[in-house]
Design brief:
80% helix, single chain, 3 helices
């Protein structure tokens, strides 16, 4: 039985990409990008989310079961890593370690 995690990762990761791009744009518009590391961290997370979206899509479209499962596992790993990264950034912002 095929796991349908990819069908849930794809739209969620795409929404989070939009959020990350909003944060990056906000930092650049307010000229805080030069004095902050937040946009650098969020850019890396956006890259992970984009890769996760691509792998989720490939998992859904793949007709080879083993390849589909591999894509899905990689997408899930990057997605969870991205969520952990966002959590760390939020905790550092709340604690005042980064600004």
């Amino acid at each position: 039985m095929k796991n349908n995690t990819s069908q849930q990762i794809l739209p969620t990761a795409a929404n989070l990409i939009g959020f990350c791009l909003f944060v990056i744009t906000s930092m650049h518009v307010s000229d805080k990008a030069a004095s902050s590391m937040v946009d650098d961290f969020v850019s890396i997370i956006t890259l992970f989310l984009t890769t996760s979206c691509l792998l989720s899509f490939l998992s859904i479209r793949s007709s080879i079961e083993s390849r589909s499962n591999n894509y899905e596992k990689m997408a899930e790993f990057l997605f969870v890593g991205s969520l952990i990264g966002l959590l760390i950034i939020i905790l550092l912002l709340v604690d005042g370690v980064i600004s």
